[in-house]
Specification:
Blueprint: E1 4-16, E2 21-28, E3 41-46, E4 55-60, E5 70-76, H1 82-87, E6 95-102, E7 114-120, H2 125-136, E8 142-149, H3 158-167, E9 171-177, H4 192-199, E10 206-212, H5 214-226, E11 234-238
Parallel strand pairs: 7-8, 7-10, 8-9, 10-11
Antiparallel strand pairs: 1-2, 1-6, 2-5, 3-4, 3-6
């Protein structure tokens, strides 16, 4: 599908975690056809004001293509950021214009035997879309979801991913929390690059997808390279 301009209505805004993160459910107008591939993104169109020109800001689609009629966005507030400052002024029922679908951060065909998704924070958004999609297709692939956060409350969609893993034996979730409060977390606490080294053995027929802030991506890329992965096996999307 070629990218187009679409008017949506914000049906739901949900606060998530303690890091000023929100989940937006955007519903398309009746009869709208919006087909996309898991892993793609949309531009949110930020309207012109007396203080600024009209702008675009990119956000990964956090819902899978099989959920028709709407799309989810998972967005963290960026202090002073044009896009999130605008979005944080909106309420349920407001209109929001998006452009898309865009991007190629999608599973490569043919699928490998193993896909490793590594993310932190809202970098989980495209992987939520892709994991739901692969599982719904009963894809013959081992899926690792390595997801890092600072605080326990910020493990976005944790219950949802745990439910998926309970139903699909090929999904392995590794949640790691670097700053848990005492007695609050019994799981992993090291950074995601260390989780990659700990849980992923061998490099044959494996693809790694990384999404998040630049420093994290650089560290995971470095670790993966040291483990023997080559650049053709490593794919990433940076959130500035």
């Amino acid at each position: 599908m070629r990218a187009g301009i679409f008017t949506t209505t914000i049906e739901k805004i949900a606060n998530m975690g303690v890091q000023e993160t929100r989940h937006f459910k955007l519903v398309f107008e009746p009869g709208t056809i919006f087909d996309f591939d898991a892993g793609q993104f949309v531009n949110v169109l930020v309207p012109e004001t007396p203080e600024r020109k009209a702008m675009k800001r990119a956000y990964s689609i956090a819902s899978p293509p099989l959920w028709k009629g709407y799309l989810d966005l998972c967005i963290k507030l960026v202090p002073g950021g044009v896009g999130t400052t605008y979005l944080w002024t909106l309420k349920e029922g407001d209109k929001l214009t998006v452009q898309g679908p865009l991007g190629r951060f999608t599973p490569k065909n043919p699928l490998p035997k193993k896909i490793v998704y590594v993310s932190t924070g809202t970098g989980i958004a495209p992987f939520r879309s892709t994991i739901h999609t692969l599982l719904s297709q009963n894809a013959d692939v081992e899926i690792w979801n390595i997801f890092g956060n600072r605080f326990v409350e910020d493990v976005l969609y944790q219950e949802e991913f745990e439910d998926l893993a309970a139903k699909h034996s090929n999904l392995k979730n590794i949640f790691t929390v670097s700053r848990p409060k005492p007695g609050q977390w019994n799981g992993e606490t090291e950074y995601v690059q260390n989780m990659l080294k700990k849980y992923i053995s061998g490099t044959a027929d494996t693809q790694i997808y990384i999404c998040g802030l630049t420093n994290m991506i650089n560290e995971v890329n470095k670790t993966a390279t040291e483990m023997g992965f080559v650049k053709e096996q490593i794919h990433f999307e940076k959130y500035d």
